[in-house]
Q: What sequence folds into this?
């Protein structure tokens, strides 16, 4: 139960827009610069950001010169995006069924989205369907064990995350991601990016208190007494790890890009 949002969206993300914007949005944005390098210059190209969350990356794609359409199925995320990026237009839509014609965008992006779906392969096929030039997606392949350590320090037993059926799931590694995408019709090139997320304790706690990701979902199940134990354990572990005003957490993402052949 690290900072790894492997839980499916319906279990741990719906209604958490403000908490996500205050916490994990900056973590998930860590792939942005690498993705823009892979996609290349905007040159006026159109780009669809699927599952845009609070709009952080969609706004960055727009600043880079892409003609942006952003879509997000969760209302709280769309509202957070509207507050933070008033000029960004966010459509109420998401995987597995996108309301767009075949090959209607030059570039299609899904940052930490496929790992939330009931059928990741169907989602990947849908991303590929609406792209005319390139499609790019990410998953977490390694995350900090911080929340597992907090849970153990509090002497609590974490709930087991619901996993997909064997025929739908995939190995959460770069090679497993690549195999899944090939099953979905991509011809992907997959690399890993490791970086250090420097985050203030207040933002980390905002994610838990707001119900974001696995740790937040687990925290919501606790009794008041166990919540106090969890918070005390968090404070002890964070205090031991503080560097200046932040905690440094290492994260690794697998980033896949697939180019579409002309025609």
A:
């Amino acid at each position: 139960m690290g900072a790894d949002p492997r839980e499916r969206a319906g279990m741990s993300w719906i209604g958490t827009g403000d908490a996500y914007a205050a916490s994990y949005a900056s973590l998930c944005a860590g792939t942005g610069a690498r993705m823009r390098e892979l996609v290349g210059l905007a040159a006026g190209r159109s780009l669809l950001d699927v599952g845009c969350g609070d709009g952080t990356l969609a706004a960055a794609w727009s600043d880079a010169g892409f003609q942006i359409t952003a879509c997000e199925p969760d209302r709280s995320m769309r509202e957070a995006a509207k507050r933070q990026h008033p000029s960004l237009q966010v459509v109420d839509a998401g995987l597995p069924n996108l309301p767009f014609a075949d090959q209607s965008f030059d570039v299609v992006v899904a940052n930490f989205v496929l790992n939330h779906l009931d059928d990741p392969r169907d989602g990947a096929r849908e991303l590929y369907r609406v792209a005319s030039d390139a499609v790019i997606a990410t998953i977490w392949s390694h995350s900090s064990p911080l929340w597992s350590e907090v849970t153990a320090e509090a002497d609590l037993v974490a709930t087991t995350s619901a996993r997909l059926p064997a025929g739908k799931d995939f190995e959460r590694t770069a090679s497993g991601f690549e195999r899944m995408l090939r099953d979905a019709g991509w011809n992907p090139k997959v690399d890993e990016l490791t970086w250090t997320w420097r985050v203030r304790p207040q933002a980390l706690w905002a994610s838990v208190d707001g119900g974001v990701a696995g740790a937040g979902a687990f925290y919501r199940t606790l009794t008041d007494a166990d919540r106090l134990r969890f918070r005390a354990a968090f404070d002890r572990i964070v205090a031991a790890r503080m560097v200046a005003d932040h905690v440094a957490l290492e994260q690794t993402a697998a980033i896949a890009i697939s180019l579409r052949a002309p025609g």
The chain has one domain: 9-259. The radius of gyration is 18 Å. Residues 1-11 have pLDDT under 50 and may be disordered. The longest strand covers residues 247-259.
